[in-house]
UniProtKB/TrEMBL annotation, chains A, B:
Main location: secreted
The protein's name: L-ascorbate oxidase
Keyword Repeat: yes
Record's catalysed reaction(s): 4 L-ascorbate + O2 = 4 monodehydro-L-ascorbate radical + 2 H2O
NCBIfam families the record matches: ascorbase
Originating species: Salvia divinorum (Maria pastora)
InterPro entries xrefs: Cu-oxidase-like_N (IPR011707), Cu-oxidase_2nd (IPR001117), Cu-oxidase_C (IPR011706), Cu-oxidase_fam (IPR045087), Cu_oxidase_CS (IPR033138), Cu_oxidase_Cu_BS (IPR002355), Cupredoxin (IPR008972), CuRO_3_AAO (IPR034267)
Cell compartment(s), UniProt: Secreted
Cofactor: Cu cation
Phylogenetic lineage: Eukaryota, Viridiplantae, Streptophyta, Embryophyta, Tracheophyta
Length: 573, 573
């Protein structure tokens, strides 16, 4: 082989090697590392200045964008002064890392000021997820953001789009979480009431005129509260990943004059259907496809309207057609949206969501255990509470996961909460009598790898002829949504109508006013998992439960989750 | 012995026994147990509604009243939602219980929400003391109260009075401590500014007209902000135990038309002297005797005026002569008090305070070590800071006491801070150049049982021709106040003028503008002790140091103080 040929061969082999290398590298899961500092900052997301909890100075915080199989490492420094934090990775199942779920009191002790806690977990499924504070009511202070998990490189979605965008919807309160929390936990009960504004991707518009001219707290021309602008190129199709992290509100989202095709819910493909407005409840995520197919010489309103309560005026953003100026208001008035009190279209959307053909995970055909959960308001010991089967949840201060693993069983009530309520005698259409309601931190223990059905049974609140919408969120699992109904769930008849063919899997689902929602999951993720109404104040007032499953299979717990409650007694120098 | 006599003898012996018993019981130290819950409450101490941190619903919190030698047990439940707490027992030396000093970061980890921490300590000396939050700037949120330690039963004071009363003076801010803390720790520095009002025993008067009529936050006729009334009986003498826990302000306290005789300072008897107004700095306590010897047909103003800063209008209370109506305003205008900028009378009071004859603890005639502490403002890394010898203190998140005892020495900077500054070259009358200022958590290690002199050297702030008053407070000890002076301390000449005859002992002492203050103490209390400016924002900005002494003599630390920083690594199930 002459020198020239030799060189060419070497070059060729080198290139081959590099190409091979890179291909391997491209398919490999990556470690994505984030350094975050949680801090107070004065923010004016809706023109009104408020002390918000931010990440790296921002609310919503930085987005996590990763690929399926990647490892996420978030070094979270608590830069608050006297307050702790914990962050939950909403929709991430934390398989083999149940201590990384970020649920204070369930999976970890809170993170103390000036401490750095390292969250490390794998994002094992593509889809649209969220993160947010899971401690007290800190989510309402602005501590939240989005997680976007892309397919592995080279893989493709079963639908086509040109661009991918994330939008978080939220409602916003001007009072501090401390003051709101105080009102909810006082005998002299003070409800949080309706939010002051709706935020789209962290921006809203509060009417500064309502607070008078003597204060400098509100400034309508603050650029921080200029509406969020989504610029689109005519003819292109956008995947909008829409998540809701409202404290309270159910929302209807729409883009004036544009249809939306629903393709994903909570990380699962949806058999596509077209809507003009998307109903979305706190804790849910959806991907919709929107094509910029309207007159490109103007802009359009995007709006978020509160439904289910007669509440705050709509939040809005600008759907901006390039090259129209992004700050140019649309020539139209804001779309009014659906009537707040019209439940029918919301039910219709819930019913419409099925797993996409070709991507159906068939549910087990029957369950090993059914827990019916009556959702009621109560007064317990003079305090206004929410409860499940007359048990109002309160968080112990030794996290369940640690307590179970290390036999600190005195840390919480060892009785099991009830699997049902008085199906025959209880009238779900009347305010609850419930003289036997209690406050407890008892937990459900599920047999490992069994199939569990949950039927959420809605009922009348303490106000006559009133029932609310509650989005329930399950940690550590997705569940099949087997069915919805109005009125009292009938175990015989209604379970025969369960969708066992193509139910969607989700992690958050609504139970509608005076209705029921049935879901099924496999208790196959060793750990302890919260299941609760995602309305932050409702969970704070007791609307939640905890499931333990296979905790004996959980590996050694990291010391970083310790330090509170009885885990201080572990001290052995 | 006949039956009758026998009975009488038995009766007599029984009585004798009971008398003996009771006498013993009377002299015995008692255990005094308190159950406190720390909670947020909406309070209007100065008519303006604010979220305050309260104890059992009150701010100031409940008073501790005990006798010398009693054991105090406070079961402190943290009822905040996401915030920790720690309470310092100001003036109690915590002999043999250094872990009960309540100084977060120095002697304990903070107390987590819903945790109950049991403080247990002996009040070994009679006198007037205080308690308050020692975590972040929570003191400013209202978490404070008074401790009154009486002589053992049967013992008597060297002065006569009829009644004993405690009054705490404070200044009050309407912004939350979170917002104030944020301003102080931002590159875009926001000073806390002057307080909105002065509180006397938790009551002040903010002018509601200044906030306009659009808000319901301020209500001038709220009974919570009716002035504090001290009712006196004509002719009687009152011991007023006056403590100051201002966030910032130096105060002058007076009772219109009444002289006051100073008899106690920080738990030590003072050679009595008569004043018309008492200058008092944050962290100090004084007992003054006041005789109700004026025209009893009217009331008199008590007033607290800010000195050393041209600040907020005076706080006031009503000195009410029984049976005049307690709500009847005095017929006079509020006494104007001394001019805010007149330093001379304040120096005069400092110089006047000596130990009372017959109660003099003679100081050691010389010291083993002298640490001169230059007090300056600096900008370090873009942040506005206070520093001592160019070192600005920051709190580590593993408490020193635990770190020293358990060799977690990586938890803080192991170098020792400097014992002095550039005495020759540094101009205390000019703004500091200080290009070499640093932020550090290094601590001073003092040889056990040695005599330590501290000379606090005041200097110009970063504003030309400005020097402030700083009250320095030492934990775990009383110190002898050896002298004060103006200008730069001269180690040769000035130390020869030290008062080694009858210096008062105190735990808090002021260094006056452009002046110096010398103090001496014996490092005989095994533990780790903070020494810092008692202006809460100044300490928060770095104006403090930490002393370790004889930590090897400290007994086993309770696990209840653990849980934070590196003490989580102690986890061994």
């Amino acid at each position: 082989m002459d020198e020239f040929l030799k060189k060419r061969v070497i070059t060729f082999l080198t290139i081959l090697f590099l190409v091979a290398c890179c291909s391997v590298r491209r398919a490999e899961a990556r470690v994505r590392r984030y350094k975050w500092e949680v801090k107070y900052e004065l923010k004016s997301p809706d023109c009104y200045k408020k002390l918000a909890i931010t990440i790296n100075g921002r609310s919503p915080g930085p987005s996590i964008v990763a690929r399926q199989g990647d490892t996420i490492i978030v070094e979270l420094k608590n830069g608050l002064f006297t307050e702790n934090v914990a962050i939950h990775w909403h929709g991430i199942r934390q398989i083999k890392t149940p201590w990384m779920d970020g649920t204070e009191g369930v999976t970890q002790c809170p993170i103390l000021p000036s401490d750095t806690f390292v969250y490390k977990f794998v994002v094992d499924r593509p889809g649209t997820y969220l993160y947010h504070a899971h401690y007290g009511m800190q989510r309402e202070a602005g501590l939240y953001g989005s997680i976007r998990v892309l397919l592995k490189e080279g893989e493709s979605e079963p639908f086509r789009y040109d661009y991918d965008r994330s939008i978080i919807l939220n409602d916003w309160y001007h009072k501090s979480t401390h003051e709101l929390s105080l009102g909810l936990t006082s005998i002299n009960f003070a409800w949080i009431n309706e939010p002051q504004s709706i935020l789209i991707q962290g921006r809203g518009k509060f009417d500064c005129n309502t607070v008078g001219t003597t204060t400098t707290l509100c400034n309508a021309s603050n650029p921080e509260c200029a509406p969020y602008t989504m610029t689109v190129v005519p003819g292109k199709t956008y995947r909008l990943r829409i998540g809701s992290l409202t404290a309270l509100s159910a929302l209807s989202f729409e883009i004036e004059g544009h249809n939306m095709t629903v393709v994903e819910a909570d990380g699962h493909y949806v058999e596509p259907f077209i809507i003009t407005n998307l109903f979305i409840y706190s804790g849910e995520t959806y991907s919709v496809l929107v094509t910029a197919d309207q007159d490109p010489s103007r802009n359009y309103w995007a709006s978020a309207k509160i439904v289910s309560r007669n509440s705050t005026t709509n939040g809005f953003a600008i759907f901006n057609y390039y090259p129209t100026h992004p700050r140019r208001d649309p020539p139209t008035i804001l779309p009014p949206g659906p009537h707040w009190d019209d439940v029918a279209p919301r039910l219709a959307q819930s019913y419409a969501i099925k797993a996409r053909r070709g991507f159906i995970y068939p549910p087990p055909q029957k369950s090993d255990r059914t827990i019916v959960m009556l959702n009621t308001q109560n007064t317990v010991g003079g305090y206004r509470r929410w409860s499940v089967n007359n048990v109002s949840f309160n968080m112990p201060h030794t996290p369940y996961l640690i307590a179970y693993k290390h036999n600190l069983l005195h840390a919480f009530d060892q009785r099991q909460p009830p699997d049902g309520y008085d199906f025959v005698g209880y009238n779900i259409f009347a305010p609850p009598p419930n003289p036997n309601a209690t406050i407890s931190n008892a937990a459900y223990r599920l047999e490992f790898n069994t199939i569990v059905d949950i039927v959420l049974q809605n009922a009348n609140t303490m106000n006559a002829k009133n029932s609310e919408t509650h989005p329930w969120h399950l940690h550590g699992h997705d569940f099949w949504v087997l069915g919805y109904g109005l009125g009292k769930f009938d175990a015989g008849k209604d379970s025969e109508r369960f969708n066992l063919v193509d139910p969607i899997m989700k992690n958050t689902v609504a139970v509608h006013p005076f209705g029921w929602t049935a879901l099924r999951f496999r208790a196959d993720n060793p750990g302890v998992w919260a299941f609760h109404c995602h309305i932050e104040s409702h969970f704070f007032m007791g609307m939640g439960v905890v499931f333990e499953e296979g905790v004996e299979r959980v590996g050694e717990l990291p010391s970083s989750i310790m330090g509170c409650g009885d885990t201080k007694g572990f001290y052995k120098p």
